[in-house]
């Protein structure tokens, strides 16, 4: 496949202020901080009150525009990865176009669903579209209102998720060093291991097994495609589902856990928002970070791995 020279030129994130702790869960479900912490690494998650995936997507997008004082008039492509839009149409992307005041422009705007891998899929789509020369600036967002689809009576899933959004602005680059590489994929599962219809239902152990198998594979594959080794990567940004999953991947790859960025202790699993949110969080504190590797997995099953410069 053709190389895709692109660059993330700005990022933004948003999470609601309202926090729910493990102790808060122990008041409504038969669970406790000790179980949740040791099995998942999650301590807190941010839960929206009165805000939707559309509102959170807009706030993250606005941050991405404001962070670099980005000329929003340049944006001609908007892709939102989400499984929690409150409406089937218009897409969240259409609504972001309107909210950003870009309705006078001929923008292509649409949403995609690849569950927790959605952001990585959306970046590959954006990269392909801008590399074609037909688009110049893509706003790519992952936004999830997971608390709206949680079964609040199911202790095995309710404690895992949080609400958030992350955004990235991507431009084409003429520097061959900015080539981006992807290894995204899927394996259709019709056995109900991970379903949302209308609430989350999951066979956690099965998902866990899938995750610890696919994540190292995806990392190796995308490195191979790029002709790079793990030492060429500044940071690995994994989907934030479970500390033990990330620990297992690190062990499998013989890497120190510090190579994997994490914030799941504070935000839980925010599905398609987890990777762009963490990217922005890390970029804010470490502006010098250059080459990152995204790796995620999710319902479908889907997985996504990408190497790109930020
Ligand atoms: O973005 C993708 C989304 N999904 C994931 O990434 C999920 C991947 N899977 C996991 O992270 C883990 O499988 C979980 C954290 C969901 C569960 O951990 P586990 O070690 O696989 O536990 P388990 O489901 O096998 O349950 C062990 C025990 C069960 O009790 P018994 O049958 O042994 O008596 C559960 O009923 O723990 C019980 N349990 C709980 N206990 C206290 C399940 N949830 C809870 C809870 N608090 N919240």
Q: Can you tell me the number of structural domains?
A: 1
CATH superfamily descriptor:
Thiolase/Chalcone synthase
Oligomer: single chain
Percentage of residues in DSSP E strands: 25-35%
Indicate the percent of residues in helices: 25-40%
Level-1 CATH class name: Alpha Beta
Shape label: globular
Bound molecules: oxa(dethia)-CoA
Overall mean confidence score, pLDDT: 96
Q: Segments where pLDDT lies below 50 for 5+ residues?
A: none
What is the helix tally? 10
Instruction: Find the CATH topology.
Output: Peroxisomal Thiolase, Chain A, domain 1
β-strand number: 14
CATH structural architecture: 3-Layer(aba) Sandwich
Report how far the terminal alpha carbons are from each other. Answer: 22 Å
What does the main sheet amount to?
10 strands, mixed
Draw up the topology in text.
Blueprint: E1 4-14, E2 19-21, H1 22-28, H2 33-40, E3 44-46, H3 53-67, E4 77-81, H4 92-99, E5 108-112, H5 118-131, E6 137-145, H6 155-158, E7 163-172, E8 179-182, E9 185-186, E10 194-196, E11 200-202, H7 204-226, E12 235-238, H8 243-252, H9 264-267, H10 274-285, E13 291-298, E14 302-309
Parallel strand pairs: 4-5, 4-6, 12-13
Antiparallel strand pairs: 1-7, 1-8, 2-3, 6-7, 8-14, 9-14, 10-11, 13-14
Bound molecules: oxa(dethia)-CoA (UT7).
